[in-house]
Amino acid sequence: MPAQSRNAAFDRAPESVTIELRRRASLPLRIAHPLSYNTLRRGMNTLVWFGGTRPLRGRTGIFAPIELADPLARVLVPPRGTRRRSVRFENFRAEWVWHTNTVDPERLRDGAILYFHGGGFVACGLNTHRRIVARIARESGMPLLNVDYRQLPWAHITDTIEDCVAAYRHLLAEGFEPEHIVFAGDSAGGGLAFTTALEARNRGLPIPGGIAAIAPWADLDCTDKIAHPNNGVDPMLSGEALAIPAMWGFAVDGVLDPLWSPVNRDFSGMPPVLIQIGSTEVLRADADKLAERCASAGVECRVQVWDKGIHVFHAAADILPDAREAIREIGRFNQRIGHGEVAAWLAPRPRLRDRVRRRRVAA
């Protein structure tokens, strides 16, 4: 049975939610999918097994070595035409990224993207994500502030959330209009984009103009992901792997606070949303829940399901046409936010190469 038809939540998309099933995966992506499963996924399975049989003691011993991923990625060169500037905060750092065709954010404080990188709350940072955020900034025609928030083992998720809110306060203090700011992120950062918007609302701050999330990890409780049909076919991650930082790093006496996960919160007043997810990703369970939260609050949401999309396949835009197209879609969404024309973007746009379904059902 195709993975697309095994997700009942997508078959009953309510009025405010548009579901796009994107065109068939390109040949390079169809080749990369099984290769990823037989390398990255099998390696991840081995780590999960090893952790279960030989538990490590203490958060530092478990997560600290993974920090090396970002320093090693310093050798990655951003795309031609990329401009950068460091921003220092009290507890973390960030980096402005924009294209040479875009005005320097210090000269024109119009629209901006506030980006939260992925990495399971334990890895990645400014270096690993510089190329992907530079592409998003270029396609959006907007400067992007990439936030290197605190992570495990040195910080709890509550510290991470404080860093994300502090970065948003910085943009507001610099004079950026909230309705022209887009919160964006991938994986753990995709979930943080929602959490930060919810925290802003609850703290009396203006909400941003939109949220763009790539494969968002939005539910720290991995029970539903482990039970999801995609748990056995995801070419990179599993629910069991995602449970490690959640339970070993964040849980207090084995308990996760539901409010740490945006899927458990009320979405009333949230801005328009774009979610991109691979058809075989285990995080489709979280994408389902986010779409349902948007529907229950009447929030406009477009969910794009990319055939055989590997987790954050956007990072392979140099070789995957699917990734380049997905980033262009994010750019179009961000541009509409900046120009105040998001309603036109969210309207169904059938193409010969896409199948778009919009079901109107009482939420």
Short description:
Helix content is 37%, strand content 15%. It is an alpha/beta fold. The model is unreliable at 1-13 and 350-363 (pLDDT under 50).
Describe the 3D structure.
By secondary structure, the chain is α/β, with parallel strands linked by helices. Helices cover 37% and strands 15% of the residues. The chain contains eleven helices and ten strands. It has a ten-stranded mixed sheet with strand order 2-3-5-4-6-7-8-9-1-10, with helices on both faces. The longest helix has 27 residues, at 27-53. The protein is globular, with a radius of gyration of 19 Å. The model is unreliable at 1-13 and 350-363 (pLDDT under 50).
Features of the shown structure:
10-stranded mixed β-sheet; 11 helices; 363 residues; alpha/beta
Relative helix content: 25-40%
Low-confidence stretches are 1-13, 350-363
Radius of gyration, taken over Cα atoms and rounded to an integer in Å: 19 Å
How far apart lie the N and C ends?
A: 27 Å
Mean pLDDT across every amino acid position: 88
**Helix and strand succession?**
EHHHEEEHEHEHEHHEHEHHE
Assess the beta-strand content as a share of residues.
Answer: 15-25%
| Total count of strands | 10
Tell me the strand order in the biggest sheet: 2-3-5-4-6-7-8-9-1-10
Total DSSP helices? 11
Q: Which structural class is indicated by helix and strand composition? A: alpha/beta
Global morphology: globular
Q: Can you summarize the main beta sheet?
A: 10 strands, mixed
